[in-house]
Design the sequence.
């Protein structure tokens, strides 16, 4: 499929482009999967959709933010529900000492971990899970996650805007 045919397809089916942005935002921040899927893919697709004038920043960024926010909430929920069982699982047992250290740091810096974790590529998808496992209250997590996703969204706006300026 050529870029022209992809552009034509997305022009004819614009909702699919926005659904793709939400999906990529979710996947890159999703516990487990997000460790293997780079945010560069999300940015690349968003840049293509923006540069080809298929969508505006005002359409793209909220969709990317929604995907990331939903993944964060899912990760937190998994941590709350599966925390003790997950920690004792065969897969995680070899990493028990690292998990214990991470839990100590999260208990100490909880809300800041929610914000900082959003910007650290290798741990972005794991921080919400750990915050849920550590027992951070959901209302408190929700507030700090909204702040983190908003700051991340602003950065995304600046990156896409900068790309537009460079190519403009």
Sequence:
């Amino acid at each position: 499929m050529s870029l022209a045919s992809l552009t034509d397809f997305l022009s004819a089916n614009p909702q699919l482009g926005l659904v793709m942005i939400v999906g990529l935002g979710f996947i890159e921040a999703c516990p487990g999967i997000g460790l293997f899927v780079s945010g560069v893919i999300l940015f690349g697709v968003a840049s293509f959709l923006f540069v080809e004038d298929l969508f505006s920043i005002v359409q793209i960024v909220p969709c990317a933010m929604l995907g990331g926010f939903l993944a964060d909430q899912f990760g937190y929920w998994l941590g709350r529900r599966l925390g003790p069982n997950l920690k004792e699982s065969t897969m995680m047992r070899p990493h028990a000492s690292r998990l214990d250290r991470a839990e100590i740091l999260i208990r100490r810096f909880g809300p800041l971990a929610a914000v900082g974790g959003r910007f650290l590529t290798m741990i972005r998808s794991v921080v919400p899970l750990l915050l849920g496992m550590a027992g951070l209250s959901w209302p408190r997590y929700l507030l700090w996650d909204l702040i983190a996703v908003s700051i991340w969204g602003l950065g995304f706006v600046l990156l896409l805007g900068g790309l537009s300026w460079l190519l403009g």
Observations:
- The mean pLDDT is 87.
- The first helix runs from residue 3 to 12.
